[in-house]
């Protein structure tokens, strides 16, 4: 990738430089967490973590490891900034986000440090576009204190089977109720809509169930409106891990394979809507 | 009721429900000794459809013993059960339908691949019996064709077209778009297809006739017929009496009864008593409503009308051809206006479609007044945007 010499002259000032041969490896995964404008970026030598939150009840994180990038240089222990995600995505797909094989947009993303804009150099077919996006004061992401030691129930499913269920979910229902239990119904998604209720039951020995670790029966409700954005991540993913902790908090982890078959992760945390007595 | 549908029949059932959703907003479900009846009627009661699945259609079928049970529910909810129609065949292995009268709950359980179990509990309302009174055996004209023939025919009409005219004469069948109130003459386009009798599996024409009915419902039935590959029979008489489209198989019977445009000139006089004569200014609506004299005149003249055979061709020449369109167009436009005006004030007396003849609304009429009495005209069926709720 040949970029203007001018940018290379000042490159020494950058605290973060990340380049990608195929910008879709970044843009696709960011699309999976686009439900609010503001995204908190946090870069460490391990890679990039992008966080989007809604109503202090929902948090989505996309992890793009340093290995995904062709170049990932960071001069500080941790670099944080906040940008408008919609604007960023518009810039990343400025060449139309073509899906034609062999035609890819290359990206070089630079950040000069606190107070500077995020600079993007995008190149496709010899045409270079430079975008500068103003950065904002980074907010501290909410800590959902979801820790693996408190996980009571966990299942790993192939995404295919959940995609079907999510595409059919009765959106007139205000909540999605998730039941996980060591006995029947094992793993159940329920909706309570205008027309009646619906249940989707996955037996623990289904081909679609890769892992089933449920220690106690838990029934929790989550706002449908909050969970809806997660279907974007589901659509991209090949596997999903559904976990609940003792407080009923939900963690959805999606394993996403990018165009180059590398693995990235998207994670959603969601607060339970209300306590439900076990039936 | 407790029944189980397996394999390809699940898709047949799903297609039937999607077809019914083209008719009305509510699904009437009636488990009978002779099978499960699913019915729907549109809000203006000018279109009715019934699917009767015989007990053999099911792998297991038990109807409620004792008194008859009927219920209705929103068809959208039932459609939601079979939402992904395309993947249904691949994913659903078995569908279990259970009706719990005590809990007022209809349960659809879909047993899918990979052990996934989808349970839909739908609430329902009790309902009256929904039955259209029709006798397709008495119809003088019967056509039967493979669905492909009709699908290919209908394909030529624009999706927005509401009504289609079917004419039969001798050894030929014509399908043409019914020219609506096109304000600009230059934009009016007539599409006509002529099919020869040998394209049909069965072709029995007793009297030449030309009927106009809604395309939407026909399209709905075609989707079903095409997916099952079953031939469609068309039974009809003169304009104004319903056309019956049916699909039958050893395990199911489908009847779509659609009102046809009643356009014998006598009735039109009655419909538009003054508009027809004074073509230019639209009359005030209150004048329309209490013009009983012309109503009576219309009844009398309808008695005096010639035999249907004589009526049909005359209408064809007088009102169908695009060259003589102006009167038709004017008349149609005005009647549209009437509709808008009258919807608020009164139950619609003067509408273009005659209703279907439901047992409840159809008196045992005498021979003479047959035509006019039957014409319990209601709102045109041509769209789903009718504001009336239209419950039986």
Automatic annotation (TrEMBL), chain A:
Q: What is this protein called?
A: Cell cycle checkpoint protein RAD1
- Database matches in InterPro entries: Cell_cycle_checkpoint_Rad1 (IPR003011), DNA_clamp_sf (IPR046938), Rad1_Rec1_Rad17 (IPR003021)
Alphabetized UniProt keyword annotations? DNA damage, DNA repair, Nucleus
The annotated subunit structure for this chain is: Component of the toroidal 9-1-1 (RAD9-RAD1-HUS1) complex, composed of RAD9A, RAD1 and HUS1. The 9-1-1 complex associates with LIG1, POLB, FEN1, RAD17, HDAC1, RPA1 and RPA2. The 9-1-1 complex associates with the RAD17-RFC complex. RAD1 interacts with POLB, FEN1, HUS1, HUS1B, RAD9A and RAD9B. Interacts with DNAJC7. Interacts with RHNO1; interaction is direct.
Answer yes or no on keyword DNA repair. yes
Q: Which Pfam families match?
A: Rad1
Cite the SUPFAM superfamilies for this sequence: DNA clamp
The UniProt entry's GO CC annotations, sorted and at most eight, read: nucleus
Q: Which PANTHER family match?
A: CELL CYCLE CHECKPOINT PROTEIN RAD1
TM segment ranges: none
Under Gene3D superfamilies, the record lists: 3.70.10.10
Q: Where in the cell is it found?
A: Nucleus
Q: What is its main location?
A: nucleus
What GO biological process, any one, is recorded here? DNA repair
**Annotated family:** Belongs to the rad1 family.
> What is this protein's function?
Component of the 9-1-1 cell-cycle checkpoint response complex that plays a major role in DNA repair. The 9-1-1 complex is recruited to DNA lesion upon damage by the RAD17-replication factor C (RFC) clamp loader complex. Acts then as a sliding clamp platform on DNA for several proteins involved in long-patch base excision repair (LP-BER).
Identify the species of origin. Umbra pygmaea
TrEMBL record, chain B:
Region span, Disordered? 264-290, 303-392
Against Gene3D superfamilies, the record matches this protein to: 3.70.10.10
Is Phosphoprotein tagged as a keyword? yes
The entry's keywords: DNA damage, Exonuclease, Hydrolase, Nuclease, Nucleus, Phosphoprotein
Biological process, per Gene Ontology: DNA damage checkpoint signaling; DNA repair
Q: Which domain of life is it from?
A: Eukaryota
Q: Where is the composition biased (Acidic residues)?
A: 336-345, 382-392
Q: Which CDD domains match?
A: PCNA
Stated role = Component of the 9-1-1 cell-cycle checkpoint response complex that plays a major role in DNA repair. The 9-1-1 complex is recruited to DNA lesion upon damage by the RAD17-replication factor C (RFC) clamp loader complex. Acts then as a sliding clamp platform on DNA for several proteins involved in long-patch base excision repair (LP-BER).
Where does this one sit in the cell?
Answer: Nucleus
Q: Which family does it belong to?
A: Belongs to the rad9 family.
What InterPro entries is this protein classified in? DNA_clamp_sf (IPR046938), Rad9 (IPR026584), Rad9/Ddc1 (IPR007268)
- Sequence ranges of Polar residues compositional bias: 264-278, 363-375
Q: Which reaction does it catalyse?
A: Exonucleolytic cleavage in the 3'- to 5'-direction to yield nucleoside 5'-phosphates
Which residue intervals are annotated with compositional bias (Low complexity) in the record?
A: 313-327
Give the molecular function GO annotations: double-stranded DNA 3'-5' DNA exonuclease activity
Q: What is this protein called?
A: Cell cycle checkpoint control protein
> What GO cellular-component annotations does this UniProt entry give?
checkpoint clamp complex
């Amino acid at each position: 990738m040949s970029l203007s010499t001018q940018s290379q002259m000042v490159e020494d000032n950058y605290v973060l430089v990340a380049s990608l041969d195929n910008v879709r490896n970044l843009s696709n995964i960011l699309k999976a967490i686009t439900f609010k404008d503001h995204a908190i970026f946090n870069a460490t030598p391990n890679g990039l973590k992008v966080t989007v939150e809604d109503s202090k009840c929902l948090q989505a994180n996309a992890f793009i490891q340093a290995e995904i990038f062709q170049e990932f240089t960071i001069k500080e222990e941790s670099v944080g900034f906040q940008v408008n995600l919609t604007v960023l995505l518009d810039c990343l797909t400025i060449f139309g986000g073509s899906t034609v094989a062999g035609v890819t947009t290359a990206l070089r993303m630079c950040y000069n440090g606190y107070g500077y804009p995020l600079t993007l150099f995008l190149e496709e077919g010899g045409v270079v576009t430079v975008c500068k996006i103003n950065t904002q004061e980074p907010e501290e992401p909410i800590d959902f204190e979801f820790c693996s030691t408190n996980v009571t129930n966990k299942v790993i499913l192939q995404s295919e089977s959940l995609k079907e269920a999510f595409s059919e979910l009765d959106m007139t229902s205000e909540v999605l109720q998730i039941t996980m239990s060591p006995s029947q119904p094992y793993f159940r998604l329920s909706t309570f809509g205008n027309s009646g209720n619906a249940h989707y039951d996955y037996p623990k020995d289904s081909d679609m169930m890769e892992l089933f670790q449920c220690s106690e029966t838990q029934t929790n409700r989550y706002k449908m409106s909050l969970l809806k954005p997660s279907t974007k991540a589901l659509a991209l993913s090949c596997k999903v891990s559904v976990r609940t902790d003792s407080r009923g908090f939900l963690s959805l982890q999606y394993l996403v394979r990018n165009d180059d078959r590398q693995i990235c992760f998207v994670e959603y945390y969601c607060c339970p809507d209300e306590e439900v007595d076990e039936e | 009721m407790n029944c189980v549908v397996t394999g390809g029949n699940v898709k047949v059932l799903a297609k039937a429900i999607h077809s019914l959703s083209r008719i009305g907003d509510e699904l009437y479900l009636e488990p009978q000794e002779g099978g499960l009846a699913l019915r729907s009627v549109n809000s203006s009661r000018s279109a009715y459809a019934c699917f009767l699945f015989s007990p053999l259609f099911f792998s297991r079928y038990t109807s409620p013993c004792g008194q008859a049970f009927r219920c209705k529910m929103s068809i959208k909810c039932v459609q939601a059960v079979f939402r992904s129609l395309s993947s249904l065949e691949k994913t659903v292995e078995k569908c279990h339908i259970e009706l719990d009268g005590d809990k007022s709950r209809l349960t659809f359980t879909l047993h899918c691949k990979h052990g996934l179990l989808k349970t839909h509990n739908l609430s329902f309302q009790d309902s009256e019996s929904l039955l259209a009174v029709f006798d397709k055996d008495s119809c003088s004209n019967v056509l039967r064709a493979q669905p492909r023939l009709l699908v290919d025919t209908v394909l030529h009409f624009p999706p927005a077209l509401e009504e289609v005219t079917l004419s039969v004469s001798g050894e030929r069948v014509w399908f043409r778009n019914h020219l609506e109130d096109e304000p600009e003459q230059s934009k009016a386009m007539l599409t006509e297809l002529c099919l020869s009798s040998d394209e049909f599996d069965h072709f029995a024409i007793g009297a030449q006739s030309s009927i106009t009915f809604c395309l939407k419902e026909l399209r709905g039935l075609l989707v079903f017929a095409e997916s099952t590959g079953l031939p469609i029979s068309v039974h009809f008489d003169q304009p104004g009496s319903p056309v019956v489209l049916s699909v039958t198989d050893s395990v199911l019977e489908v009847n779509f009864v659609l009102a046809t445009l009643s356009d014998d000139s006598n009735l039109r006089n009655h419909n538009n008593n003054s508009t027809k004569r004074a073509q230019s200014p639209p009359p005030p609506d209150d004048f329309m409503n209490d013009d009983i004299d012309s109503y009576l005149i219309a009844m009398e003249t309808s008695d005096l009308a010639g035999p249907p055979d004589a009526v049909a061709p005359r209408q064809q020449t007088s009102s169908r051809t695009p060259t003589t369109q102006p009167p038709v167009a004017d008349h149609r436009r005005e009647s549209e206006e009437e509709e808008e005006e009258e919807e608020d004030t009164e139950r619609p007396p003067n509408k273009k479609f005659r209703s279907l003849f439901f047992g409840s609304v159809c008196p045992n009429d005498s021979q003479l007044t047959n035509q006019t009495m039957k014409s319990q005209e209601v709102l045109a069926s041509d769209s789903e945007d009718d504001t009336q709720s239209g419950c039986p």
